[in-house]
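Today's session is about reading a structure prediction critically. Students often jump straight to the picture, but the first step is always the sequence itself: look for stretches that repeat, for charged clusters, for runs of hydrophobic residues. Only then move on to the predicted structure, which in these notes is written as discrete structure tokens rather than atom positions. Here is the chain we will use throughout the hour.
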Amino acid sequence: MKKLLKFWVVRAAGVMVCVLGGVGFAVAGPQYVITNDDPGVSFYAVARDGTLKLQRQVQIGGFGTVAGFFGANRIVMLNSKDQQCVYASVPSLGEVVGIAVGTLTIGGSASGSGNDNGAANGIGLAVNGSYLYASFADSNTIATFQVMAGCGVAFVNDIAAGGLAGGLINGMAIHGNFMITSFTDGSIESFSISAGVPVSNGDEQYSSATLTSQDSTYPNAIDITSDGHFAIFGDTSTLESVEVSDISSGKLGQTVVHKSKASISASNVILSPDETLLYVINTQGDTVSAYNFDKTTGKLSGGCISGPIRGQSANWSYLAGPSLISTSGNGGGVYVAEFGGPSAIAMVTLTSSGKNCSLQESTQSPFADPDSQGLLSIGMFPPRAF
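Below is the predicted structure for this chain, in token form.
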């Protein structure tokens, strides 16, 4: 039997990523960068020049969990015609909490079943207009919650989900009726969510990079193109590795690997709103990369890489979850969580001309997050449209 990969679980310095959820309904109103500080959720107002100012922290309970995997998303956004919500996980309590964006107040919360446990390694989230999904890493379960009025949630059911070699559930992303997960042993799997509760599509497999690297590389974070044609996996690796799977058949295709020696690890990824660029957070390095992405073929090419993000080791240990600076065009760069005690948010801006680009940390970066002793997940409201 294939051996179980050694996976990144850090008790005093955890790492994970946030891939935004949403249904693409634009609303007027303030723009926020939002952090899951565990046990609070902080809302940062975004100025015209992209700088951030802490506006309010909403307490969501619990006693903090500074641990987790790169791929799990602890905060997601719902931006529908009916309501605008932020959902955050509270691993120490096994809960999901909904916050109304208009009032910055809690609209409701719910726990999974007695089988669901994410106290040590976190609870990842994904959401659409009808259901919210929570991946409980320690119990290897995915819980389904119904989205309720007022940003509430109600538990529906849960299922078991695990890697081929016993790996724990890691990343999770949804598009339409399609859910994709990654596991800490290099396995990936897809599910149908057409009936709400996930049902496996029977396509669980090891990623190509996991197989060819003899288990030294494995998928973490996941993003999916707006048309549902391709799934993109950011890998934990000793170099920079990104994998792309053709999912147009309704199942995962064998992943195609893109490698670079430019930095270490590519565990956090997010597509630009126009899908021309893939932003890569070099989580175990100190840089951010951007690759040209062809949404017709799924191929990556060229691109650019930033210089070192200031403060590594002195102020932070890992770069973690990204959020786009802009929800239009090429995204204008990314905000990046800096895992430290206390933590901060870096701002890395993009300039581009055709397929040429450059990335540079803003002179006003970073922005302090004094309420987090280990910032793992950030997001933006309004979210990207897909």
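Discussion point for the tutorial: The first strand starts at residue 32 and ends at 36.
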